[in-house]
Design a protein that fits this description.
single chain; 310 residues; 10 helices
Length: 310
């Protein structure tokens, strides 16, 4: 059964292996160059890369934005092009019946396929996600892990298994490869968009930052490791939001006059944020959500194959 599964999906496996090897090599090379003792601080996008041929090559790799965007797209593509056809292609071509009539039970058939699909791809996602964490750490004090939230382990692993599970479940339910691939892509994008835009910021209650200094630091200037959730707004002494014309005296004046005006009127500038020490907690929470969705999808796929597919 293992040999048959490999023969059926060896092309996808070889392409995946080649792609993971290329990503690993590229990330490892940039990490090596970023840790070079002779690099110049403040180089490309905050990375410390040496002024050499290899440093220039590392900069070109970073300009491809694979580490920024590729690690977000890869799980969706894996789910669509590897997960969705895993069962759908068998049902579409009717080859699943041959396996079931040769002494292979439905449960063994689906579990063998899932094992050979999930285990190596989980390892690959973990490897790339860990390398991304190392790369971001090489950026030193300029790094903000929140900016690359979706590209780091353990979320890379959770996103990958979720996409694969959605692909397998879609393929089992729809029974045709192309529609299952389309449904997987749409589903992965929709779930990750909703989590990232509407849910993620509320895993824990945000902290309110307030200052009565109109010229004080806000946002990244006040806490460079935090995730600032909104733009700073002005509030009066009663906590009501006011606009800029009310926050600053119309007659202008010196900075001291503005500070005194704010003090007399109780004006403050406020902004909500998630502190940097919550980053890994948020990673764990979102990864847990995706793992829970994965369990539901895999349970449905196993049920559908063992009870409903004929």
């Amino acid at each position: 059964m293992i040999w048959v599964t490999w023969r059926q999906h060896r092309l996808e496996g070889m392409w995946s292996l080649a792609f993971v090897a290329a990503m690993t090599a590229a990330l490892s090379f940039v990490i090596w160059e970023a840790s070079h003792p002779g690099c110049v601080a403040g180089a490309q996008a905050g990375y410390c890369l040496p002024n050499s041929v290899f440093g220039a090559l590392a900069q070109q790799i970073m300009q491809l934005n694979l580490v920024q965007y590729g690690l977000v797209v890869i799980p969706a593509l894996a789910g669509a092009f590897i997960g969705a056809p895993l069962v759908a292609r068998e049902i579409e071509n009717g080859t699943h019946r041959l396996a079931w009539t040769q002494g292979v039970t439905r449960t063994r058939w689906i579990f063998t396929k899932l094992s050979l699909l999930f285990v190596p791809l989980m390892g690959a996602a973990a490897l790339i996600g860990i390398l991304e964490v190392i790369l971001i750490n090489q950026m030193g004090t300029q790094a903000n892990h929140w900016d690359w939230f979706d590209q780091q382990a353990p979320l890379t692993v959770a996103a990958t298994v979720f996409a694969l599970a959605l692909g397998v479940a879609s393929g089992a339910l729809i029974g045709r490869s192309i529609p299952a691939m389309a449904a997987t892509l749409i589903g992965v994008v929709a779930v990750r968009f909703c989590l990232g835009v509407f849910v993620r910021a509320h895993y824990m209650s945000p902290i309110l930052f307030a200052t009565h200094d109109p010229f004080g630091n806000t946002g990244l200037g006040a806490n460079p490791s935090a995730w600032w959730l909104d733009q700073p707004v002005y509030q009066d002494a009663a906590g009501r939001t006011i606009d800029g014309s009310q926050a600053f005296p119309s007659s202008g004046g010196t900075p001291g006059d503005v500070i005194a005006y704010w003090k007399d009127h109780g004006i403050s500038m406020v902004q909500y944020y998630q502190p940097g020490d919550r980053f890994w907690t948020f990673q764990t929470i979102e990864s847990g959500i995706m793992v829970a969705l994965t369990a539901v999808l895999l349970g449905f796929a196993i049920y559908w194959v063992t009870r409903r597919v004929s």
